[in-house]
Give the backbone structure.
Amino acid sequence: MSEQLYHEGSRSFQDRFDTRRLADRISERVTDRLDDEDREFIEQRDLFFLSTVDHRGFPTCSYKGGDPGFVRVLDPQSIAFPNYDGNGMYLSLGNAVAHEKVGLLFVDFEDPSRLRIHGIATVDFDDPLRSEFPEAQCVVRVAIREVFPNCPRYIHRYRLVERSRFVPKAGTSAPTPDWKKSDWAADVLPKRDQPD
């Protein structure tokens, strides 16, 4: 795995800081499937970071949040999550459709630990799971290619104060955020967000 995972740039830093042996040992722990511990970790998270690459080659990283369990582990080699209404730019979804390769970073800030995943994304507006996620616009499925162990040493400890009131819930509509009511945005909002 190390020859696939590392390139000349990575190797130059590993050699400079004498970590090549350590990096090779860690690469032996990279796998293409989730175990039961990974499943539990992912399904307990209420946020993750999604990385994609745009048409210019620039990486994009976006925050994805919801209630715990909004990311589903479907089997050891696939996960799914909903896309909720956002700022309307659709950078991450557009990139995922155009380039398919994605990275996900799951972090537990209360009991510092993290997990990274590389995979191939598909976006489906008619996915059967969509009905299980209130207000989901579509469902993103990720076919897992690599699962990484990740050092938690520099994770700052945070406590959850309150989950966002904008996370969609069954039986109620999420409120419209104040920024969409601003003068600069109000006249270009989609019809669903325009005041009655």
The helical segments are 2-5, 8-16, 20-27, 36-44, 91-99, 183-186. The CA atoms of residues 97 and 122 lie 7 Å apart. The radius of gyration is 19 Å. The chain has a mean pLDDT of 92.
